[in-house]
Amino acid sequence: MTNPFKNIQGETAWQAPSNIALVKYWGKYGNQLPRNASVSFTLNNAYTQTSVKYIAKSQVDKQITLKFFFEGKENPKFADKIQRFLESIVPHFPYLPYFSLEINSSNSFPHSTGIASSASSMAALALCLTAIENELDGGMYPSLFFEKASMIARLGSGSACRSVYPYLAVWGKHDAIPFSHNEHAIPFENNVHPVFKTYKDAILIVSSDEKSVSSRAGHALMENNPFATSRYQQATTHLTQLADCLKSGDLDKFGEIVENEALTLHALMMCSTPSYMLMLPNTLKIIDLIKTYRQEKNVPLYYTLDAGPNVHLLYPEKNATEVTAFIKENLLPYCENNKVIFDEVGKGPIKLK
Fold first, then answer.
1. Is 23 in a helix, a strand, or coil?
2. What are the strands, taking DSSP E only, across the chain?
């Protein structure tokens, strides 16, 4: 078969951040579609950089031809996952079988440290693949570019679809949020109080061990969770309320909702069949110390959790000095090897030269 892309080759590279959900998505249906809408902070310092070299094949077949390197080394486990992902998205990117691909990926943070590496890595890869399509087809409007990249990222990792937008992103259809969609995220930086665009996120690493139950398995267990229906209603209500807080700058109500979301997420795990628990004793100790500090110092320091034991501390930029001191003096002993990653809300993906 003649290759319509004969002699075409190139390389594109993107940096995409991780994100931390404020209202959680937990439970999905169909092909990576959410049971409830979610909203997240886009992070700044925790990111993945991915480059994709593409060279037109001399002999065309229907196979995906791929070499994959993570942190400069071939990684068969990751390569198999990416191979299956690329095969699944050929209907969206018909050019893929016509090229030999070499993908290089690296993280700014250690793997398995409580930061959503699947979100940043799949977002970076989706941006690269969409950029290649852009180069081959002559380009699309920027808003459509990021919309498609978000949709492709979602197919690799649900939360990854939120990582293609700056500051905040909403994923999932919600009646109170215009243009919200289940198939891709939308930017949510407009009508947000300036305080939230400089928010800090200190990530306390309680444990870097691999989770006993994967997020994929956890989502599946929601199908028979007795509290699933009420949870989806709660998430919808929380997102409505949180959108108001984000607009007005109500830090206390913001924190109340975010902490409730974190605890609800882990309560759902405990109520699953089989049940499981991802919080550890030091997670609970850190939460208790945060609550005490907040009450005594009247500082708007709040926490959230992903599906794991590590704690994200959220606080305004103006409180960074005193919160950093509190972390170092009181919380580090409960972190694995005194490990804390200081991050903040960021401006989203960057196209690399």
1. strand
2. 9-23, 28-29, 33-34, 38-56, 65-70, 73-74, 99-107, 168-171, 185-187, 200-204, 302-305, 311-315, 340-344, 350-352
Instruction: Measure the N-to-C terminal CA separation of the chain; round to a whole number of Å.
Output: 34
Specify the CATH architecture of the domain 9-191: 2-Layer Sandwich (3.30)
Backbone angles phi, psi at 70, to 5 degrees: -120, 125
pTM of the model: 0.95
How much of the chain is in helix, strand and coil states, percent to nearest 5? 45, 25, 35
Q: What is the pLDDT of residue 225?
A: 96
Nearest to 200 by CA among 321, 285, 288, 112: 321
> How distant is the alpha carbon of residue 321 from its chain centre?
27
- pLDDT single digits (tens) 86-98: 999 999 999 999 9
Domain ranges in the chain with CATH number 3.30.230.10: 9-191
